[in-house]
UniProtKB/TrEMBL annotation:
SUPFAM superfamilies: MetI-like. Its main location: membrane. It comes from the Bacteria. This is Phosphate transport system permease protein PstA. It is found in: Cell inner membrane; Cell membrane. Belongs to the binding-protein-dependent transport system permease family. CysTW subfamily. The chain crosses the membrane at residues 21-43, 72-100, 120-140, 146-164, 221-240, 277-297. It is a multi-pass membrane protein. One of its GO terms (cellular component) is plasma membrane. Residues 75-294 form the ABC transmembrane type-1 domain. Keywords: Cell membrane, Membrane, Transmembrane, Transmembrane helix, Transport. GO terms for molecular function: phosphate transmembrane transporter activity. CDD domains: TM_PBP2.
Amino acid sequence: MASKESMELRGVIARNQRWDLIIGTIGLLATAVGVLILMLLFVDLVIDGWQRLNPDFFLNFPSRRPEEAGILSAWVGSALVMIVTAFTAVPLGVAAAIYLEEYAPKNWITELIEINVTNLAAVPSIIYGLLALGLFVYILGFGHSILTAGLTLGLMILPIIIVATREALRAIPVAIREAAYALGATRWQVVSDHLIPYASGGIYTGVIIGLSRAIGETAPVITIGALTFIAFLPPIPFSGDPPAGPFDWLFSPFTVLPIQMFNWLSRPQSAFHVNAAATGIVIIVATLAMNGIAIWLRSRIRAKLKW
């Protein structure tokens, strides 16, 4: 009787192992197909646009002549918008996550907020653009400016940063908190001296991944009125006659790399399509670089942690 039960148990284990192998193989094949398609598309993009990747392409303004056109105003606009986005989303996102995870009482209001934060991470980006158009452009009067774009993208990546920060805080063993409280530490001392340093790898990862998503967004930036052709840069603080103020650049018209790429793709001349391919290379390389930095930071910080 025992031998029969043992054989049945071995049969169940063998079937489960086969299913594990099948599911693992399907997942590996799906991942390989996705990576292969991405690599093929990127290689095709490089073949089309690599000849335009020279210093003039990065230092020239857009032009009606494709061979003289560049992305100076676009990459400067993207950089400034990302600065505003980071200064908006990172402090708010990390602070909100710390409050929800460590301070907020566990009741139905907190649960409702948590559900909404999670759902907002999946809202289409065009919705944030429409929200920003009504709130920042018309109600608050910020206009079609760098400030409006940065605030819009900051709102868009805010749920991503909140979720990533909360997951990083949850990954810290409860014993760390209990040991600190046992030694008489206040809640803020536990958060500032223990939880944030230990969770910094996950926080950095969430922030950089959120910014790498924002740098490639087009729909919300088009909605708030980004220019498709701009041949000047935002004013440099304390320059010009009369001198520009320290924050005048925040209210300057702008364009970004995805908008510039979209503009060139809409042109009938094939030479502009080559410029668009080169711009696509720049966007992809910037995104991959940011994700690579996030992975490197996470592994480096985790290697230094000693529980």
